[in-house]
Amino acid sequence: MTLAPSLHTLTTILLAAALFSGTPLSASAQGWKPERAVEIVLSCAPGCGPDNMARALQRMFQTHRYFDVPLTVQNKPGGSGAVARSYLKQFDGNGHYLFHSDRGALAGHAMGRYNYNDLTPVAILYGEYVGIAVKADSPIKSGRDLIARLKANPALHTVGLAAGGMGTTNHQGLASALKSANIDVRKMRNVTFNSGAQAITALLGGHVDTVPVSVGLWEPHIRSGAVRVIAVSAPERLPEVFSGIPTWREQGVDTVVFNWRAMYGPKGMTAPQVSYWENVFQRLSATPEWKAEMKLRGSVSQFNGAASMKKRMDEEYVEVKALLVALDLAKP
Questions:
Q1: In terms of pTM, does the model score above 0.90?
Q2: Of 30, 99, 160, 284, which one is least surrounded by beta carbons within 10 A?
Q3: Which domains does the chain have, with CATH numbers?
């Protein structure tokens, strides 16, 4: 005798079919879907790494009609992310707002700037290593050379930092290496900009001496020969245009810093709202277009859903807090 499939089995089949066919789930199956314009909120100015990705997401979502409502990007730089978080706070519990940020939320929490539990984890999408660069004509020839110079005089060279300044993951990609030489990063001359793109512009203009940002932002400047990327915070060399960049490990410093990029939501997002966006981003991460975008940026596709993202945040917070305490940037 053949038994009819259970409701649970039918639901599982429906979810699997929707996931792998690329067809959006219906409102009845998913429980929620956006009914008006969606905003991706950023804490940095146009031209930063998250901004570039948000624009790519906007293009992919709208080209392939992942949902039927418009998607806009809202840049809210300033106050080490406080402006963006204050804006997002107005929309607690609203699934039409997403906050594209990164592992830096852990540093902000450790430094007492805000509580990362005031955001709703949605999904980790990908990650990037940090590339530390100087102008092509700089007297700084390598990461090892930079460490030696700053060890002799921490204020000798000016560091341009992207949005958030000291303590951010980009800064950690440099500061964790300097820590190995007992350099006091608080004595360095740091200048903070509203985006990685602005920090790079300052470097190219000769206004700062070195800049640590996501390695993908260096790609056009590597090709043009305008910069020398003296170190990357990866465990081994990256491929293609980045293959000429030595790791910190190659230069005698056992430092690896990986900056995962994620989507958060406002505090109080409902489970159906989170589930909807998890589904959307998981489908996207399996597409050839997404994989091509990752290759172009020198990024690593790395999908984690909401539950595993929260677990990862809590686990990595311990490591980030310990580093920032060691750098005297956070209280024990």
A1: no
A2: 30
A3: 35-127+258-326 (3.40.190.150), 129-251 (3.40.190.10)
